[in-house]
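yo, Mg-chelatase subunit ChlD is done. seq:
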Amino acid sequence: MTARSLAELSDDERALVSRWRLVLGKDAERSGVCLSPGAGGENSEGTEEALGFLFDDDRGAGSESSQLTVPSWIDTVSELFPRQAKEVLERELVKRKGIHQILDQPDLLERIEPNVELVKTLLTHKDLLTPKTRVLARKVIDKVVQELKRKLEVRVEQAITGALRKDRHSPRRVFRNVDLKTTLRRNLKNWNQEREKLFVDKVWFYAAEKNKRPWHVIVCVDQSGSMLESAIFSSIMASIFAELPGVKTSLVLFDTQVVDLSNQVGEPVDVLLSVQLGGGTDITRALEYCSTIVREPARTILVLITDFYEGRPEADLVRVVTNLADANVRMVGLGALGYDAQPQYNRQTAGKLRKVGMDILVCTPEKLADCMGKIIRG
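structure:
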């Protein structure tokens, strides 16, 4: 499209051409889609250069090199794009340009918008962190963890604390613990049709939490690289569980070895920095260890987060899950835990474990909390 014909376009048509120009990059000129200076808006050239810095290799750009560096690109993107777009582009920066430039210039870590993808990248390359970048990386990870925790904890507390208060009744007559639903249901026989009144001859009360045996939640997390996002959410969920009244929380990480980090369950950043990615997978060994810390099976919920690709005979895994189920331990197996996870897990093995007593889910953290609430309520 020539500059002369462009002048004849309406504002909407010019905006459309501008968007296609940004999509096509330098190839647009060879295809006849070009704009005269300023035609795409006062920021079009800066926007195009910023996108070209990331995508020109994919769009078949010529040999022209961008004048941008990583630091100047971050400044440009911050100026030209809204926050949501900025986060997407910065994830692409880390993905396409690698982490090395950022690690070589620690101040860049302070300028990139913290997000889960950046946390995953930092954890994947944590062995490359210098003492200075390790301090900055910890701040980034902590900020993301705290934001996610604030988002999740209200919903989790509502689902699980509400269930804890309602899973058993008590003879103690405390008004704030009245179980109104049960009281009404069990007194329906006393309905007086003539007077149109319900006469209550007995009131049911929920048990006070401090007088009840606690539930034991064991969170068992696969450390393999494909499970990294799930490991992030698992560590956060475990830290929330640990703060709930009436809940004892254990946190176990595994590959071919098993590490019990229950003493760090309230420090999810420390947990994540302890994750050792890669290696083999021995789910059986992890569950065998978990079985040794079960004290009261009927009040234990074991949450297993894994891709279900077992590194030893599958029959061993089926056997240990069967034994736990026979002991009345409630088990929830997650192929993924997060919001954007596209789980690649062994559905055949997961299906066999479902048959012997493990609930199999792929869900958000909130749905996991709802599921646990249902288990507690019975």
